[in-house]
Amino acid sequence: MADPVLVVERLSKRFSSGGQPVTVLTDLSFNLAKGESLAVVGRSGSGKSTLLNLLCGLQVPDKGNITVTGESFSESVNSDSDARWTELRRRSIGVVFQQANLMPALSLEDNVRLRSHLAGHAAGHERGWLERLGIGAEADRYPDQVSGGQAQRAALAMVFAMAPAVILADEPTGSLDRNTADEVADCLFAMQRDSGCALVLATHDRELASRCDHLLDLSALHLGGTD
Amino acid sequence: MMLVRAFVSHYRRHPFQLAALALMIVLATMLWTGVTVLTDQARNSLFQSEEAVAAGVHVVRTDGRPVRVEDFAELRMAGLCVAPWLEVRRPPPAGRVIGIDPLAMGCFGKAAPGGNRGELDGAPFLDISAAVRLAREGYDSRLYLLASTENETLPQGYALREFSLGPSTGELADSFLLNLDALSLLVLLITGLLVRSVHRLGIAQRQDSFDLLFRFGVPGRRVRQLLALELVVLTGVCVLPGLWLGTQLAAILGGGFGQALNSLFDVNLYAGAAESLPWQAAAVMVLLVLAVCLVDWLVPRRWQRAVSSARGRLLAVLVLFAGLAGVALAPDLAGVFAGTAVVFVAAGWLTPGLLALSAQKLSDGTDLDGSGPLTRWRRRELAVMFGHLALPVVALQFAMATVLAVQALVTTFESTFDDWLAQRLEAEFYVEVPAGADAGLAAERLQNLEGIGPWHRVTRGEAVISDEGAAGEDKTAVVDLFALTPVSELVVDWTLLASMERPWQRLAQGAVMVNEQLARRHQLELGDTLEFRVADTEMGANIVAVYADYGRPAGEILVSGSALPEDFSARFESFSVNPGEWAMAEISEQLADVWNVSDVTVRDNASIHALASQVFGQTFLLTRAISLLTLVLAAVALLIMSWVFFSTRAWYFRLLGIWGLPAGAIHHQLRRLSVTLTLAVTITAIPLGIWLTWVLVSRINPLAFGWSLPMDLYPLFWLELGLIAVVTGLVVAYLMRWQLVQRENGKQVKS
Ligand SMILES: Nc1ncnc2c1ncn2[C@@H]1O[C@H](COP(=O)(O)OP(=O)(O)OP(=O)(O)O)[C@@H](O)[C@H]1O
Ligand SMILES: [Mg+2]
């Protein structure tokens, strides 16, 4: 595969819940190239969020390797790997959640500004990003003054403003109605194509998943199946 | 039943919330009970004994000497109804007791004081024989002879005086009690705010589950009823340990408090009967807790919103100015206190909004270069915090302002008192003239000592001035008389609040000086002629100076000893001596020789100073302790509140981490946020504290104590308070950080 942005090798993760070990991921491997998108599906509790957390270093695998834009991480944690993950999240990995992606005390514009500031970009293009997502008129509003769909668009604006190599989106349309969800998804895919970044999208929504280049079904994995 | 289970299960999951509210109620009750018990004790000491005495008068000797058993015998032989009243001073906490003779009391036709309450149990009344025994053990004692009120003809050499246990302190003692009441009101105000804030936050945390119950069809009224019941039960349970702790606190502070009463007013804290727990205080506390927690359901929504509206703010500003004007202009203490309360309410009303507004303005103006966007975010978070933590912020502001003012007052008093004492203790040694010894002979001897340093003879006694304001027919007041022979160079450095030219020379030539208390009470001015009676001689002299005389209420006239009439008899005499070329031992030998005693009591400057400082330290122990405890309570409340509040905010700090801000940097933001919060509160507390200091020294003190203090500011103490604020802020930050780490390790990212 040309230019792999994301390489996952034999990744395993388990939790202990009430003393009982719960295996969530076993020996998972896949690659994702620049500009490609991967849909992660599976029933609730199958480990979609867990996988995304592993991919941005918010959780640590029990086994396996993850390589993001050439930076490799194994199951061993130390302050160096911590710092490298932090730096990656800051500049190269954009994360979008189902909700609460915005700082409630800041206007949409200030939110975008803060995010791109952290990614090391100079201020000045915030409004442009909001306009590209169709919410330029709401730039001065606060998160509690806009609709759920507008808030998610703002979240996308924030992520694209940082010009990431990978976007990890965990049910980004999960709390929206069908029409709004489709509009937000349209924005997401259009801008992903334009920017050429890789996208990992965890979703329950089969229709949304079908718009991605690849599909990873975690429930099937559990049943012993493979992609 | 389902509801009850829902309530219980909530607390099982959030025991900390319950514990916080319980802790607040316990501590609030403790502080409040402590203050109330002490105030009641003082009130009782002031009134109980006086009330118990049917006779409002006692017999004194016109020569000014204390009455003795022989006088009692003489008066009884003259057929008068008099009864002995022997006061024995024991050091705290034993307290003073009063020995009476029930038989002699019988001649008033009324039951003996204490007698109607059953036994003479020593609190404070006991049989005179037991009191005499105590007096013989070496405790200080003083005998009074009570008389019935009828105008009886007294034998030659005796006079009737109004009987009150202290000197005629006028309204001063009332004022002092009012001061204490004000302090307890302040405690009540602050603790009320704190209890309310913790309770509100708990309710806010549970709002989701209430909404759920509502959706399940449980009427809101039912939920509220249960919440009220829950609060009643919790308060009932928590008030008890609070009460007990409060009485313990009162016991600890009681000693110092007794000293304070003693040195400020010459009022004695009598041994109080061990009363049962102060239930009244408990009832007030329960009512307060219920009122502050449930007020939202009683006051219409519309009003609540109006309070924080722009028009509400304007009203608050008006109220503030009204309060300020009230304090400045009020003619009496009650007015000053009411005005102060109004100012506090208005300040508390305005402060959180102002702080939030300034944080907002500051963040709007943030320079967006450099780390600007992050700074802007932090300032916005700060504005949010001021809004959500309004109550504990105000409580902390009040507590800090109080501590600041009390501290400034005490420090000013301390240094002023110290200067004053240093002036009074100008001489190196003091020699008490033993009872019955002739001070005149000693003076002659000292005069003949070649090479002795400056010295003078101090004579203390009483003078009577006319007092139009006095109650009853006797339009006179007894004041202290203080005579110096000669007017030596030891006194010329005294702080004179007002004086004519060459005051000391004029004093030596027969003019008088008066202390500030006397001047204020009788509106005496420089140049006025003061008419007064010493023994049986009417005197009149020009007032040439008013001098500062701190720490006691009694009025005093300073005269030159040469002006004293022949028939004057001193209550107390001493010499202030700088030995010069002599050794003090030689001088005291000379005096022992003159007086024909084996030993004379000589005290040096240092030991008197130490003694005075010790008494002083005790004097403000109570106020200091209460205000500091309130501060601690407010700080603890802020900790609790920020902790609970942060649980609703933690996600956004986590978000910063997801956006790639290193953990260290996030913790740095946390620290800056919380330290800015506490420092900002300190900054708003300082003007309020300064104003309160002014109220204390320039308004309350003169009205309550009769003397005023200079208004001094202590910026160093502000720094100290700032340091406390920084430490509190750091602890808050640490708690938040701990919570953040806990969350990261426990629940994973929200999705
Ligand atoms: N911190 C944790 N401790 C214990 N178990 C955990 C933890 N985090 C996740 N799990 C468990 O791991 C499994 C996978 O959880 P995850 O949140 O990844 O599922 P998901 O596929 O995202 O589900 P959903 O579609 O509901 O969001 C679940 O069974 C969950 O209970
Ligand atoms: Mg999930």
Automatic annotation (TrEMBL), chain A:
Record-linked SUPFAM superfamilies: P-loop containing nucleoside triphosphate hydrolases
Domain ABC transporter positions: 6-223
Keyword flag Transport: yes
In alphabetical order, the GO MF annotations are: ATP binding; ATP hydrolysis activity; transmembrane transporter activity
Q: Which GO terms describe its cellular component?
A: plasma membrane
- Specify the superkingdom: Bacteria
Keywords, alphabetical: ATP-binding, Nucleotide-binding, Transport
Supply the name of the protein: ABC transporter ATP-binding protein
